[in-house]
Specification:
This protein is mainly alpha-helical. The N and C termini lie far apart (55 Å). 0% of the residues are buried.
Length: 69
């Protein structure tokens, strides 16, 4: 299963001593976290199915009012 936690990964239990960070290449800066807003909510399939059903009901009612009544 995919781990989606935002907490740092704990150190390995077999790590014996301190790590020499001067030998490691520098990592690029991480981008700032973006807030999840309305577009994220609209990308969820259950919400889109619900909105599609409501839209179809409204469209059916409008067509009925315009062409049948």
């Amino acid at each position: 299963m995919l781990d989606t936690s935002r907490e740092p990964v704990p150190a390995a239990p077999d790590a014996a001593g301190p790590v020499d960070l001067s030998a490691m290449p520098a990592l690029p800066a991480l981008p700032a976290e973006e807030a999840r807003g309305c577009l994220f909510a609209l990308s969820q399939p259950p919400l889109m199915i619900f909105l599609a059903v409501i839209g179809c009901l409204l469209l059916t009612a409008a067509v009925h009012d315009l062409f049948v009544l």
